[in-house]
Structure formats: structure tokens, C-alpha cells
Automatic annotation (TrEMBL):
TM ranges: 12-34, 54-71, 92-110, 140-158
Family per record: Belongs to the TRAP transporter small permease family.
Stated name of the protein: TRAP transporter small permease protein
Keywords: Cell inner membrane, Cell membrane, Membrane, Transmembrane, Transmembrane helix, Transport
Record domain Tripartite ATP-independent periplasmic transporters DctQ component: where: 28-159
Length: 179
């Protein structure tokens, strides 16, 4: 019961983070196209486009999509040797790998959280040609994205170790438990 509630909440958070990452990608494309069109047609350049793209859009796209890729078990893997293992041994090995991934990303989330807090406190900004661009909000993408990835890896590890099919939605977990 508690696992299903946790899994539902985690899935909702991961989906929300992915939606923000998708919005960032769309805004980035629109912003860059607008910049190119304005420069080509009117010979006017929009201030700080490279900085906004790098600090906001790209950081959001990358970090906030981590957990989604992990949840969908979409990481690149070289399975040349592990495919020769018996199915259960392969699942246990993958579970162990996900535990290591969860620990690593949890540590990275913890460290970047401290940096985000510090930069928020001092009000970090980037001085553009004509504007001061607040940079501290973008510092939160890393701890949020890495924290969600760590939790997602932990769920996958648990699924692999107990032999539950990976990628089961909370409703599928409920159905499998009843059946």
C-alpha cells in the first residue's frame, strides 16, 4: 500500500518535471528562431539569448528529464556479457546497478542542493549586455532532477531485486498484487 502511494507520487513528480523540460525545449526553439528572424529581418539582436538558452532552457531540459529516462529504463547499456547470465541473476545485477546509481545521484542532488541554497541566498545573477539575468533559479534544476532520478533508480532497483516487472505503473502494481 505505502509503495503504491509513493510510486504514484513519484510518477506524478517525474511527469511534471518532464512536462517542464518539454516546455523548456519548446521555449528554447521559439526563442532561438525569434532571435535569428529578428537579426535577419530587422538587424536587431535580442539581449542575452545565449545566456537564457544555456542557463534556463538547456539546464531545465537536461536535469528535469533525468528521472523520466530512468523511470522508463531508457539509459544506454552494454549488455554483451549480462545477456549471457540467467534471467534472475541479470535482474539482481541490474538492481545492484540501480542502487549504485541511486546513491550517486542522491549524493549529487545533495551537493547541488547546497549550492542552490547558497546561490539563492546571495541572489546570484549574470550580467548581460543590458540586463542582469537572475541565475539562482536555474540552480534548482540540478537537485530536483537528480533527486527525482535517485528516487526513480531506487524504485527500479527495488523492482529488479524483488522480481517485479520494470516500468509497472501504480495501477499495474495494484492489479498484479490482486492477481
Amino acid at each position: 500500500m505505502m509503495y503504491r502511494v509513493f510510486r504514484r507520487a513519484l510518477d506524478a513528480a517525474i511527469s511534471a518535471a518532464m512536462a517542464v523540460a518539454e516546455i523548456a525545449m519548446a521555449l528554447m526553439m521559439l526563442h532561438v528562431v525569434l532571435q535569428i528572424a529578428m537579426r535577419g529581418i530587422f538587424r536587431i539582436s535580442i539581449d542575452s539569448v545565449p545566456e537564457i538558452v544555456a542557463f534556463y532552457y538547456m539546464a531545465g531540459m537536461i536535469f528535469l528529464s533525468f528521472a523520466y529516462v530512468t523511470r522508463e529504463d531508457g539509459h544506454i547499456s552494454a549488455s554483451l556479457f549480462t545477456d549471457m547470465l540467467p534471467r534472475r541473476a541479470n535482474e539482481l545485477l541490474q538492481g545492484l546497478i540501480f542502487v549504485v546509481l541511486a546513491i550517486g545521484m542522491g549524493l549529487f542532488a545533495w551537493e547541488t542542493l547546497h549550492e542552490a541554497i547558497r546561490m539563492t541566498r546571495i541572489g546570484e545573477f549574470h550580467q548581460g549586455a543590458s540586463i542582469n539575468l537572475p541565475k539562482w533559479p536555474t540552480r534548482w534544476f540540478a537537485p530536483i532532477g537528480c533527486g527525482l532520478m535517485a528516487l526513480s533508480a531506487l524504485v527500479l532497483a527495488l523492482d529488479k531485486i524483488v522480481g517485479r516487472p520494470v516500468g509497472m505503473t501504480p495501477s499495474a502494481v495494484t492489479h498484479a498484487a490482486k492477481g
